[in-house]
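Our platform keeps sequence and structure together, in a single record for each protein. Such a record has a labelled line for the sequence and another for the backbone structure tokens. The tokens are whole numbers drawn from a learned vocabulary of local backbone shapes. The remainder of this section carries one protein's record, kept here as part of the documentation:
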Amino acid sequence: MTSSQDSSHDTSSEFPGFAQSLLRAARLRCPLCAKGSLFRGLLRMHEKCEHCHFKFERAPGYFLGSTYINYGLTAGITTASYVLLHFVLRIPNSALLPGLVAFCAIFPFVFFRYARSLWLSIDCYFDRTGLEEARHQ
């Protein structure tokens, strides 16, 4: 790789490790430069990074995978909570179900931004070739 004045083209410094990718996702920042924010409102994403111009939606339907993250975490937390509260702490279903149903309705909206950010960061970490292609679009 040739040296460059612009550090936004050095993939080794952009993604030093998986933990750094997760940190960028948790901060809702661009997975490429970590400077631009992903969202411009509660649910609306920027089309591309305002700092490095990396296009976030790499293909039509790209963020469908974030739905799986969101659903999986919601189902996992709900299931683990039910097992713990009902079978270990012996809380009756009549007391548990309203709270768990409310959680299942509210949590996906709260976690929406983080699911998308996780999907984008994890994909960029594992698919370096696709990342390079998306960078030059």
Summary: Residues 52 and 124 are 15 Å apart (CA to CA). The helical segments are 11-14, 18-26, 64-88, 93-126, 128-135.
